[in-house]
Fold:
Amino acid sequence: MTKEVKKKKLNLALQGGGAHGAFTWGVLDAILESKVFDIEGISATSAGSMNAVVMASGYLEGGEDGARAALEKFWHEVSDASAAFCPASSGLASSFENLPQFFGGWGTESINNATHFLNLMSQNLSPYQFNPFNYNPLLDILKDQVNFDAIQKNKDFALYITATNVRTGDARIFKTEELTADMVMASATLPNIFQAVKIGKDHFWDGGYVGNPSLWPLFYDTEICDILIVHVNPLVRKELPMDAPSIENRLNEITFNSALLKELRAISFVQKLLERDMLKDEHKHKYKDVLIHAVRAEDAMSKYDLSSKYDTSWAFLTKLKKQGHAAGKKWIKENLEHVGKVSTIDIAKDYLGQSAS
Structure:
């Protein structure tokens, strides 16, 4: 008789990064495959939001196996719709019918060329001009595959989806009980590619500008202390970017990591206050010692440039999934025993370039 493994509780924080979200798909697949974790909360942005709601919907229908199947189906449909999903084709190709042929199809080289072409166009034309009907096939895929009614009513875990309020510049966290496909799309709306998403009286852009992902809902609104951050954007690069695409790529990474680093700096500060017993007794109940874990992206993702975030070919997506799965399995093997006990990263040393003192 097989002994049932007692599951460990874990929160997830999922970064966004276009097609690079397939790396996160692989990490999640490894976590679900292991069947050793109970997920209480998921905070996510952009492609991370897609992974979060698809996994949640699949889990509610069929547990870990259902979640794995749902993620596989989602990314397969993204790939099948790639001619429309790639930003170079989503609005632009509808206006320029022969653009794919001009770039020779949607292989890696042509994605590169088309991405640079789109960047030039977006400096002079907004998505309200080159994509006036705001065509976005991802919205249809989400509505078709995700049962948002079931997600809103579920009590198994909480979802926190970050978007950027265009008017105020603040983060807006859309929570489980209100979550819709439009809110998830708002979290993934890059302003140079798609029109801002209107929800209520406000309009929203990609959440990566203000929280990629937002960590604070996980330590204010959930009971458990452990947060696993699944990175997509490399924090550190050794080489100096010297050509225009490399400079643009690095600026993109820095921008979409900055909010996360600010939150980690705040967590590190609170950890020191708790360790050194520097808080007054009447304030201690407001804080908890958050345990941080991470699957970093440097080893797997540093070799890919900005244009690869738009490569939704099945070969590329499954390659990233395989790399993410390997990274997820490695993290579980090395850190499972520490979950619920200690952080497996040193924020000051691993993220802030400081000594722990």
The chain has a mean pLDDT of 83. The first strand starts at residue 8 and ends at 14. The beta strands are 8-14, 37-45, 158-165, 171-175, 197-199, 202-206, 226-230, 291-295. The radius of gyration is 20 Å.
